[in-house]
Design goal:
Length: about 100
């Protein structure tokens, strides 16, 4: 069993409120959860309007599958047509 952790750093350049941030992130988070069946939370910069850090966790049979699954999540976020832009991402394998 392998656990993978994906950290997504997002920029929200056109946002001007926490309510606006929530309206940008909520559909993205729902799409990721629905499409990939992973656990996800906003881990940092909760009070910053123009930035967000999301953590995505995935459990799989082996590390190669988990890594590929998390790369697909990052690719979806990169292709997202909303107001969130992917700045950077990292994938860690835990165990």
């Amino acid at each position: 069993m392998a656990v993978g952790l994906l950290t997504l750093e997002l920029s929200l350049p056109m946002n001007d409120s926490l309510k606006g941030k929530r309206s940008i992130l909520k559909p993205l988070i729902a799409r990721i959860r629905r499409t990939f069946n992973v656990s996800l939370c906003e881990a940092d910069a909760q009070d910053v309007w123009t930035r967000s850090v999301l953590e995505v966790a995935c459990v799989s049979q082996n590390s190669a599958l988990a890594h590929r699954h998390l790369q697909e999540v990052a690719h979806l976020v990169e292709q997202w047509h909303g107001d969130a832009q992917l700045v950077d991402y990292t994938i860690e394998m835990l165990g």
